Amino acid sequence: MPRKVVQGPIRDKEKTKQKLLAAVGKILRTKGYSGLKVSKIAAVAGFDKKLIYEYFGSTEKLIDEYIRSQDYWSKMNQDNIHVDFSDGGKELSKVAILNQFEHIKKNKELQKIILWGLSESKPILKKVADEREEMGEMLFTNIVDPHFKDKATRYRAIAALLVSGAYYLNLYTAHNASVFCGIDLKSDEGRKEIEKAITEIIDFAYEER
Q1: Which of 11, 78, 41 is nearest to 33 (CA)?
Q2: 11: domain range?
Q3: Do 186 and 200 share a domain, yes or no?
Q4: Neighbouring residues of 113: CB distance < 8 A, sequence distance ≥ 6
Q5: pTM of the full predicted structure?
Q6: Has residue 1 been placed in a domain?
Q7: Which residues form the HTH tetR-type domain (predicted)?
């Protein structure tokens, strides 16, 4: 049986693209967003910068693709969340926000992206933020709002506090002190307390409907 050929232009191109994307992540992690220059990305990846333009069209599009690959909520949809929606989104809310809380802790590059979005106004970041909102709107409109009816906006406000809290607590403890409101968020016990609070708040919101 002939040996399968795995090398070639298509495979090599994909490997090169992945190395360029990985270079963006490495620079973000070590130098921050100010280090995302075309020459620096090419050097870290070990390629000529012409390949960035050839494979992505521009440095901005390369960075855009990387950010999309890391953003938690932009990748969220009804197909990749395996929970029962018949409870009006209660389990969905728990799984989504608890997973977000853990995902941000582990993803140092995403932490840098979030900080970047808080400190600068960039079309790349605005576009991802808009797509994040579109995904959230789809989940709210199709699953949560029909359950809460005239109280749907109130639950959206609760979700906003929980989501933003999951962002902030991870960013604060990653870059400053580990203790917040007397809870050590760098300990498993401390993080479990936050997770229990998230679950209890969601349960309370659904009970009070």
Answers
A1: 41
A2: 7-67
A3: yes
A4: 28, 33, 67, 70, 71, 125
A5: 0.81
A6: no
A7: 14-74
